[in-house]
C-alpha cells in the first residue's frame, strides 16, 4: 500500500512539474512589462534576442541581449557588442541567469542572478502582448 501511494504521489508531482515547464514555453517570445525598484521596463523577446527598454523619470535606456534557453523555464542573457559599447560599466563577460516560476496565463515570477552583481532580483513579468 505504501508503495502504491508513493507511485501515485511521484506521478502527480511529475505531471505538475511537466505542466509548469510547458506553461513556461509560452513566454519564450512576446512583449512584457516589469516594475522593480521604482523603474519600469518593457521587454521584447523573440527567438535569440531580448531588448529591454528601462524607463525612468530622466530618460530611457535600451539594452539588447542574446538569449540562450537552458530549459523551458530558464535562460541566460549576454549583452550584445552594441550594448557593451554603449554601457561600458557592464563587464564584457556578463551573464544573467533567469528562472521562471509561478506561471499563470499572463504572467510569471522571474528570479534573476548574474556573475557580476551579488544580488538576486525577484519580480513579476506581465505579458503585454
Description of the molecule:
With 129 residues, the chain is of the alpha+beta class. The chain is 22% helix and 47% strand. It has a single domain, classed as Lipocalin. The protein is built from two helices and eight strands; from the N terminus they run αβββββαβββ. An eight-stranded antiparallel β-barrel has the order 1-2-3-4-5-6-7-8. The model is unreliable at 2-19 (pLDDT under 50).
Give a summary of the structure in a few sentences.
The chain has helices spanning 2-24, 81-86; strands at 30-36, 39-46, 49-55, 60-71, 74-79, 96-101, 107-114, 121-127. The protein is built from 2 helices and 8 strands, in the order H-E-E-E-E-E-H-E-E-E.
Average pLDDT over all residues: 85
Q: Please trace the helix and strand order, writing H or E for each element.
A: HEEEEEHEEE
* Helix-strand category: alpha+beta
Task: Report the uncertain regions.
Answer: 2-19
CATH topology: Lipocalin
| Percentage of residues in helical conformation | 10-25%
Query: What general outline do the C-alpha atoms trace?
Result: globular
Beta-strand percent range? over 45%
What is the oligomeric state here? single chain
Please give the CATH class: Mainly Beta
Main beta sheet? 8 strands, antiparallel, barrel
Q: What is the count of structural domains?
A: 1
Number of helices: 2
